[in-house]
Amino acid sequence: MKLIRKAILPVAGLGTRFLPATKAMPKEMLPVVDRPLIQHVVDEARQAGIEHFIFVTGRNKGVIEDHFDRQFELEFTLTERNRRAELDLLAHDLPGAGQTSFTRQQQPLGLGHAVWCAREIVGDEPFALLLPDVLVQAKRSCLAQMLDAYRHLPDNANVIAVEEVPADRIHMYGVVGVGQSQGRAFEITQMIEKPPRDQAPSNLIITGRYILQPEIFNILADQTRGTGGEIQITDAMIRLARKQPFYGLKFEGRSFDCGSKIGFLAANIAYALERDDIAPALRAEIKSLLG
Ligand code: G1P
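Above: inputs. Below: predicted complex with 1-O-phosphono-alpha-D-glucopyranose.
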């Protein structure tokens, strides 16, 4: 059985698109309903069986580390007040002892560089990469769906979650070319980062969930700069694709680009509408706002 045990979560980004909210607080801690963005992404990875969470952080991101730690004062007060539900929730959300690692990206040199910063902690095994800007709302965790596909693919397979977007948004993402089907997945024939609209090989974008082989680290070690002068993960994947197969999976579910304000607000509404304790009142509010 092919296992993926470790996941990289790059959380070093400055979050300039959400200033001033992110002046003193990491963007990954912005709440979607009542859970920080990063908690939603960790939940998705845990549901896929990930055992070790590697956060690539930067300056001013200490709160993320605290979030994934116990909070004794809070637990003490909740215990005194007999708030069992809240205590259970906190305990449930917490990865186990030794299941988190934190390393720093000391300079903002790009996503590829952030991933490379985790190489020693990942070691020589395939791993998952989840970009916390993206939330995927799905019945079965997006990463779990990818692992289902991965188990039926060749040993050296790399898997990327993809989805269709309207033509006017393609240039904002990595885009893949579509080859033959392989079960629920398909062979990727081409990848390109943020292509001009007329050069995109399809309308299928890279969604921010990856299963990658450790050979990607040797390629990233070159520190070659790509689009925007940054070390791009997509460029390293293009080079790895010369030696190893890449597959795309159109996952079942809906993604929200929480790096944009509209995506973030839409995620909040969509996640709240799934909650029995919130949905009825929220529907009424939305109706009155729109009316
Ligand atoms: C990154 C990736 C891009 C992918 C996107 C998904 O871009 O480089 O291929 O489509 O995430 O959100 P970024 O959003 O960091 O510019």
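The chain has one domain: 6-289.
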